[in-house]
Structures are given as structure tokens and as C-alpha cells.
């Protein structure tokens, strides 16, 4: 069994300071096997914001995997944005933009979906999909769960106004074909967990979205994070949200089971005849 704590959209520079200590305490109390942060650690990619993000990361006791978000490249410094968009991220957060984590039970691959030429809309390239598939190939034939971490979702709900990530449809197909099980995302400041719309011949891949862990710019939902508990053939996604006393508590959970074509929500599973 493995437990992954999924954070997203910290947005240091537009964070709620009263939530920082409670969030650190909640993360460390849960003792996950891995903390995955799916981008937007800062609000405007400024040095002081990256310093605050680094201080936060240094307080986390678990192994960590992070990917950048669109807010982690400078918006108001065109020189850096176009010529060295990730220079501050690399200095303060990590040199690797597409890190990997692996052990006996899981393979986790981060992908960079930030498009420096487009402020909000992300892009997932065929090269990135190949990088994930190459990482998963190292465990060919074994039963390890395969997880991708990206900032931009690869599928939106009907009420989302933002444009979908470029290349998302082909990426879903490619990741499903090479054995991806779960995609962890952020960007929308909305929580969700469910399988992608399954096209013919495609495995049921699970997309899990985290809202904003710390930002004071909310979309009508509380600050939150996810705790994924992964066992053989089963995933539990537990949402922890901040209450009025700035404490993070579990407020919702969804369970998924692996059937022949991929994942299905436990509540939708039909009993055997």
C-alpha cells in the first residue's frame, strides 16, 4: 500500500498566511510516502515568492515531487519569460522540470505542461507523453501503479470556462496505451476525481484534481488537498479541506476499483448477477 498526498496551487504571494502552519502540520501528521505538488507554487514567479515556497517545502518531512505551473514563469518580466522562463523555479524549487519517483509499488512521473507563449493555456507535447511512457517501461511486466503529475488538466468538466490543454486528447490516448493509471492535476482551483471519458479500446484512466491548498483566490470552494491511498486494485481519494478555524479535515472521499478496462468508481460498480 502507498499513500500520496497531492497538493496544488499554493500561490505564494497570494496565499492565506493563516493556513501555512496548519497545512504543514496536516501533511507531516499524515506521513505520506510521497508528496506531489502539481504546480503554481508562486503567484508571479518573483524571488520572494519562490523563497517562501522553498521554506514551505523544507518543512515537509516526506519525499517530494514537484512540477511547475503557469504562474511559476514570470508574467511581467518578458526577458525572463521568453529566454529563461524556469530559471527561478530551477534555482529555488528544483533543477528537474519533469522529475521521477519510483519504488516497489509505484512509478510517478512529473511532466511540464507550461507553455511560455500562452499565459494560462497549457500544452502537453508528444515528447512529454513519450517521456512518461519511457518511465513506465522501466517497470514493464510488474504490477506497480503508474502515476503522472501535471499542472493542467487533460479533461475539463462542462462548467469550466478555461481552454483545455493543447494536445490533451492525444495525451490521454497515449498515456492510456502505455499503462498510466492516474493523472494528478491542478490549475482550476476546483476539486474532482473521476475517470476520463473512455473512447473505444482505451483503458479507464483516473484524473484527480486538487483545488488550491493556500491561495486566497478561490472559486467558491475551500482550500484543500488530496490524500490517495493506493492498494492492489483499489484507490481511495480523500479530500481534506480547511474549515473556519483553519484546520484541514477530511470532508469527502471516493473509491475506485480496477476492472478489466481500467478504473471504475466503487459506487457505480454493478453487483455480480
Structure description:
This protein is α/β, with parallel strands linked by helices and 273 residues long. The protein has 6 helices and 13 strands. The strands form 2 sheets. The protein has a 7-stranded mixed β-sheet, covered by helices on one side. Strands 4-5-6-7-9-8 form a 6-stranded mixed β-sheet, with helices on one face. Helix 5 (126-137) packs parallel to helix 6 (168-177). It is globular. The protein starts with a strand and ends in an 8-residue tail after the last strand. 44% of the residues are buried.
Number of domains: 1
**Order of SSEs:** EHEHEHHEEHEHEEEEEEE
Number of strands: 13
Q: What percentage of residues falls in helices of 4 or more residues?
A: 10-25%
- Report the CATH C-level class: Alpha Beta
- CATH-assigned fold name: Purple Acid Phosphatase, chain A, domain 2
C-alpha Rg (nearest Å): 18 Å
Write down the overall geometry: globular
**What would you call the structural class?**
alpha/beta
In CATH terms, what is the architecture?
4-Layer Sandwich
Question: How would you name the CATH homologous superfamily?
Answer: Metallo-dependent phosphatases
Instruction: Trace the largest sheet across and list its strands.
Output: 3-2-1-10-11-12-13
* Low-pLDDT residue spans: none
N- to C-terminal distance: 30 Å
What is the mean predicted local confidence, pLDDT? 92
| Strand residues, percent | 25-35%
* Largest sheet: number of strands, sense, barrel closure: 7 strands, mixed
Query: Total number of helical segments?
Result: 6
Amino acid at each position: 500500500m502507498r499513500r500520496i498526498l497531492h497538493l496544488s496551487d499554493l500561490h505564494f504571494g497570494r496565499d492565506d498566511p493563516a493556513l501555512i502552519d496548519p497545512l504543514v502540520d496536516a501533511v507531516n501528521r499524515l506521513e505520506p510516502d510521497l508528496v506531489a505538488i502539481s504546480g503554481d507554487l508562486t503567484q508571479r514567479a518573483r524571488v520572494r515568492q519562490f523563497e517562501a515556497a522553498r521554506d514551505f517545502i523544507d518543512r515537509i518531512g516526506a519525499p517530494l515531487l514537484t512540477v511547475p505551473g503557469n504562474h511559476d514563469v514570470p508574467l511581467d518580466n518578458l526577458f525572463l519569460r521568453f529566454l529563461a522562463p524556469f530559471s527561478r523555479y530551477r534555482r529555488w524549487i528544483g533543477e528537474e522540470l519533469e522529475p521521477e519517483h519510483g519504488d516497489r509499488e509505484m512509478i510517478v512521473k512529473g511532466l511540464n505542461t507550461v507553455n511560455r507563449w500562452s499565459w494560462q493555456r497549457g500544452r502537453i507535447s508528444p515528447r512529454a507523453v513519450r517521456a512518461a511512457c519511457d518511465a513506465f517501461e522501466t517497470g514493464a511486466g510488474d504490477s506497480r501503479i503508474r502515476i503522472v503529475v501535471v499542472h493542467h488538466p487533460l479533461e475539463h468538466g462542462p462548467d469550466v470556462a478555461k481552454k483545455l490543454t493543447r494536445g490533451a486528447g492525444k495525451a490521454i490516448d497515449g498515456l492510456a496505451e502505455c499503462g498510466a493509471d492516474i493523472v494528478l492535476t491542478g490549475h482550476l482551483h476546483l476539486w474532482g476525481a473521476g475517470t476520463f471519458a473512455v473512447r473505444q479500446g482505451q483503458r479507464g484512466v483516473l484524473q484527480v484534481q486538487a483545488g488550491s491548498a493556500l491561495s486566497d483566490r478561490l472559486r467558491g470552494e475551500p482550500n484543500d488537498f488530496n490524500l490517495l491511498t493506493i492498494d492492489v486494485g483499489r484507490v481511495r481519494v480523500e479530500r481534506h479541506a480547511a474549515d473556519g478555524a483553519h484546520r484541514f479535515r477530511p470532508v469527502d472521499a471516493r473509491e475506485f476499483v480496477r476492472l478489466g478496462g481500467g478504473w471504475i468508481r466503487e459506487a457505480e460498480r454493478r453487483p455480480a448477477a
